[in-house]
Amino acid sequence: MKILVLNAGSSSQKSSFYDLTGDALPIDPPEPLWSAQIDWNDREDSATLKVKTAHGEVFEESYRSTSKSADTLKALQTLWSGNTQVIQNPNQIDIVGHRVVHGGTDYVQSTWVNAEVKASIERLAEFAPIHNPANLAGIESIEQILGADTPQVAVFDTAFHAHLPPAAYVYSGAYEWLAQGIRRYGFHGISHQYCAQRAAQILDRDLQSLKLITCHLGNGCSLAAIRDGLSIDTTMGFTPLDGLMMGSRSGSIDPGILIHLLRHSDCTVDRLDHLLNYNSGLLGISGISNDLRQITAAIAKNNDRAQLAFDLFVHSLRAHIGSMLASLGGLDVLVFTAGIGENSAAIRAATCEAFGFLGLSLDLAQNNSEPIDRDIADANSHVRVLVIHTQEDWSIAQECYRMASKSS
Ligand code: ADP
Fold first, then answer.
1. Helix axes 345-353, 304-328, angle to 10 degrees
2. Which of 19, 72, 74, 162 has the smallest C-beta neighbourhood within 10 Å, fewest atoms?
3. pTM above 0.90?
4. Going by CA atoms, what residue is nearest to atom 22 of ligand 1?
5. What is the mean pLDDT of residues 368-378?
């Protein structure tokens, strides 16, 4: 079964192409036949398409950007024909899977795309103004190129958190908020779910028997508390701004600060939005970058603000892990994933140090190696600590495979 996956983010559009043969899904994530990524530069006036094949060949092309949906269409056309030779025959594609960021309360599992689903994705763009339109653009580009009958599957980032209990998803504001859709939804669900399943697989344990906290630490950061294979608490909320301190997002802060700024400065709603989403977090505090690598380099040169940004990030992570711990009532496995979680031994070590009282202890040599899909806790630790390479695209491809198998 040949599956194309489109995964649209705020500043990139990723895609992967899998060829699954045999009667069952492979246990270890396979390499896609090729993967491609469109990156938009900061001013969004140009876009670069990079394609990498499983053999390591790389192809790159830059465009003058008109709109994200036009760029997506153009990039897909390049993959189809052009000189990339990536897809020789579009008819070879059996299913296209899409990551859709917001499924609201309507979509608690993956679904086949039809007119009603597209209308819901458009309606829910009110809650995810950057992502849902990009996801819809991907769906419509496929329809345009391959025809409206091409089977497409929407896999929702919010779906894994659909089982949060009311005490975890209701905000302690006005009761009427619930009816207006103002509640915790949680995000990064595809990644959290994948990591929980992969952790159980690596440890050779039944997922249902494990209490896990998964730490997705990329540009956006969130935690999930997972029991019986379900997310029962998470840090992102109504929007992906809630919870942990992130690369350029503030995470949770006293809402009184927002009222104060709106009342006592020339801050408008739009400026506040920009400040909290794009100019806060590691970038806002360090004044250097949203990228932890640059913060770490500045710390090595004794930059105080970089050190403060690092310390705040760790403090926020520890505090929220503590909160997830209380929701779970115990912990068997702590998982680190995404850019920071997979690559920063320093963040992992500083975070874990606070949980020594649980009997959690790291094998420092393992932590400092390149421990992808490995257990980095020492043999005597009461909590296993795993570093897992998140594979959202593979997870979406698996969903497509399952949906197709069910309907055949
Ligand atoms: P996104 O949320 O955009 O998918 P990623 O999961 O790719 O983000 O994570 C990107 C972040 O990961 C970077 O901004 C950087 O902070 C961090 N990162 C990537 N590589 C390293 C590294 N070697 N050491 C420390 N941090 C890293």
1. 60
2. 19
3. yes
4. 343
5. 94
